[in-house]
Amino acid sequence: MPGQFEASVKACAALSQHYQVGLQALRQADKERIQVNGRQLTGSVDVDSALAGTLPNAPRWDYGIGHRPRRNGAEAVHWVEVHPATDGEVKVIEAKLDWLANWAGAHAPALWAMKRRYVWVSSGNTHLTPTAPGLRRLAQRGVKNVGSRYTLV
Q1: Alpha carbons 151 and 85: distance in angstroms, whole number
Q2: pTM of the predicted model, to two decimals?
Q3: What CA–CA distance (Å, rounded) separates 76 from 64?
């Protein structure tokens, strides 16, 4: 029987054929940035690639990763964006987050209803001013910049 993440991805017409076990939906370079106990993964989906053909100009978010931590067992979606981490890119991440909320709320309601985390993983060196207003705005919206590696917990 599929978990909530898998069922929710497959319930979305635009993503249904893009569900993958483990981290298989992630591009190799991005997969190397993610660390997790494999038994806690419930799957992944490359949202960016899945929607590139139908929404080529949209500021698409990269990935959804299903995860069930041992301590409480509640499955969650880690929305992961791999992107350059500079002060100048904060507005891009804000636009991607707005797009994700609008798109998933309308087209993937079961997936959007799940417990979720937003994570910004740097695709290179991280050059962010910790006190930058834009970074603070993202933090208030729940987006965590984790540098170049992310460990799902």
Answers
A1: 17
A2: 0.94
A3: 10
